[in-house]
Amino acid sequence: MIYAVLTSPGFITRYNAHFPDKPLLYSVYVWTGLFHYAFEGLWILAALVLALGGLAREKATGVAPFSLALPVRRMNLFLIRAAMAFAQSVVLGLASALLIPALSSLVGEAYPFSQALGFGAWMTGAGLVILTFGLLISEVFEGEFTAPVVGLCSLTAIFLGYRSHTFRGWNVFDVMSATASINPQTQLLTGTFHWLDLAACLFFSLVLLFTAGAVVKTRDF
């Protein structure tokens, strides 16, 4: 992300030299290259990694009996881990998003803090479905590398499939980048959010979270 912002003047200059009739706005460059692609993809991978771990992995490494011997219910252990992963993913998303306007000033560009905060908050809210998917597979697969490989391969394939237009239709990645809520010319948030899409992401997040919790409660560790 830092590289993309710091090298933006050269990229925009070259682009505008090749397409002088369709100049590239800086706000379009930021949304297309970061909030809708690179930054979003990196946050997804980070959120998945933050969600990994849990009793299933501890069982595979032989330390699950120690955790289960603590005077804490296994469901509480799971919920604490989920809450920590959620908090870390939110901080990562918002802090990274706010770096964009801060770094933009170094290259002579301006990007509104309110826009960066809005995109970051919307991405982390809708991206809860990614986090809870990671929590679920971390409690399903025991192998040390099984859950990371399954999660990373699945999400990467789906993400790139939508970005290359191999897959079409409603997808969580467009919701995360607020695709339906931006001005088509400036690609800045218009203030009109599609709350139904966010509600759908939150609903699926709850379904995945409850499913993961059910696995934790019923599984023999």
What would you note in describing this structure?
There is one protein chain. The chain is mostly helical. It has helices spanning 2-6, 8-18, 26-35, 38-51, 55-61, 64-69, 74-104, 113-126, 128-140, 146-163, 172-176, 195-218. The protein contains twelve helices and no strands. Helix 7 runs antiparallel to helix 8 (113-126) and helix 7 packs antiparallel against helix 9. The protein starts with a helix and ends with a helix. The mean pLDDT is 90. Keywords: Membrane, Transmembrane, Transmembrane helix.
Spell out the blueprint of helices and strands.
Blueprint: H1 2-6, H2 8-18, H3 26-35, H4 38-51, H5 55-61, H6 64-69, H7 74-104, H8 113-126, H9 128-140, H10 146-163, H11 172-176, H12 195-218
Helix pairs in contact: 4-7, 4-9, 4-10, 7-8, 7-9, 9-10, 9-12
Transmembrane segments: 34-56, 77-99, 119-138, 145-162, 193-216
Keywords: Membrane, Transmembrane, Transmembrane helix
> Kindly state the mean pLDDT as a whole number?
90
Order of helices and strands: HHHHHHHHHHHH
Number of helices: 12
DSSP E strands, number: 0
Could you tell me the radius of gyration in angstroms? Answer: 20 Å
Gross geometry: elongated
Biggest sheet character: none
Tell me the strand percentage band: under 5%
> Termini distance?
41 Å
Q: Structural class given helices, strands, pairing? A: mainly alpha
Descriptors:
transmembrane helix; mainly alpha; transmembrane; membrane; 12 helices
In short:
The chain is 71% helix and 0% strand. It is mainly alpha-helical and 221 residues long. The termini are far apart.
